[in-house]
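Hi there. Long-time user, first ticket. I'm pasting a complex I've been working with (about 521 residues overall). I'd like to know whether the download I got is complete or cut off, because the file seemed smaller than I expected. Thanks.
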Amino acid sequence: MSEAASTHPQAQSRVGVSSFLLGGVALLLVSLSFAVSVGAVPVPLGTVWGILLNKVSPGLIEQTWSQGREAIVWEIRFPRAILAMMVGAGLAMVGAGLQAVTRNPLADPHLLGISSGGAFGAILALLHTGLFIGLLTVPLLAFLGALGATAIVLSVSRFADAMSADRLVLAGVAVSFIIMACANVLIFLGDPKATHVVVFWMLGGLGLAQWSQLIYPLVVLVASASWLLSRSTELNAMTVGDETASTLGIPVARFRLSVFVAGALITGVMVAFSGIIGFVGLMVPHVARLLVGGDYRRVLPASAFLGAIFLLWADITARTIMAPEDMPIGIVTGLVGGVFFVWLLSRRQA
Amino acid sequence: METEKASIDMMYADLMNLGTIFGVEDKAAELVDGYRAELAAFTSELETGEPLRVFVYDSGEDTPFTAGRYAMPTALIEAAGGVNIMDDFKKSWATVTWEEVVERNPEVVMIVNYGEVTAEQKREFMMSNPAFADLDAVKNDRFVTLEYVEATPGPRNIQAIKTLAEAFWTE
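Hi, the file is complete. Here it is re-exported in full:
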């Protein structure tokens, strides 16, 4: 990532940033309105807008649609689209941050064990303990699982003296395999009739979205993402190398762990509500760098926008391609992301 | 050849086949006739109305796992005087979208009970999710629970039909 050092953000970024932001917001709104108007049940665009306007200011438009249609648009599609944007933005920013502090282009929120912990918690609740504290049991256990996995990775990295970037990645991969093996033991021991529910956690999906629960990922995302944004210059320095960063006064090992923990918080809460959606965190930051250069002051917001837009479209594809069946979104992100990545690689070589 | 829609006759055919395999055709025929008579007696006393729209909720919160055209519950519900809202869905057991469920507005929800997530928790999930607030089944709190063995092909289907019919027509 040597572009980071060679770009001169002050000189070229001002106009670029504001037009990029405008373009991003516009594209996001277009994608969002498309996401709420398509689905298994066709709802005319006029009805969609009528429902939305009536939600903003009740009684504005005479209600010509059924209560069912209103529930589909407002209670199912809208929270789902908003969750898609948050998950996409969150995972992409975490991926960007981790790729900087590990200087590993393959770093990804799911590579470092965090998501495996989340899946483990969810599977434990669904197949073994039951919903002992009500309907929030599964997301709560998934989040605790993600935090537990983070703690294990941190202690392993300390125990194995893995304060360097490479060793943190290796510790994460090792822990990820162990936790996944344990999760598979839980699936193996669980009631075979019930194991199909596990697919959601392994391949991801946005079908759990409800207005009342969106607040949790929102709070974590806003807090952790603004911290990451505020550390853009440190992230820039980290992409150059540990020595350079430490000459600039950055406590390298501690900073790396802080980014890892902030990433774990975001990933944990996203996995808790959407399962393991692969490839977004890995791919989107690379696309963002291609578009805006290597400066993290732009890479992070660009990743957030691109991630949000990408996941909206991935979800639109996942729930329309085989309607009335819902395809797990991880299949779409993996397939589209993988093919796109190969194309990107071949292009760079040329 | 197009697969046939699930029907209770398939369960009878299974029993007859088992009878042939084990060389006890007479006993099998007797058993099947007994079931037929039992059901006929039961349904003749039943006062039914327009077929009720029934949604089979097996499991799943992100997407519902349900019974389609070829799954046993479609037959059980029909025998009890209802109609599976997903009976045009040409699958056995599969996932659908909640959108489709909301659009078809079931009057009764049939829960399949097994595993760690209890039938009561499944009911609670449907009752508490704002997306389902306007479903007739939720507004009138009409849920009926079948055990896993009752909802899959087997002799317990007879009891299952009675349970469903009582829930449909005597409340």
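A couple of notes from our side: Chain A has one domain: 3-349. DSSP finds 15 helices and no strands in chain A.
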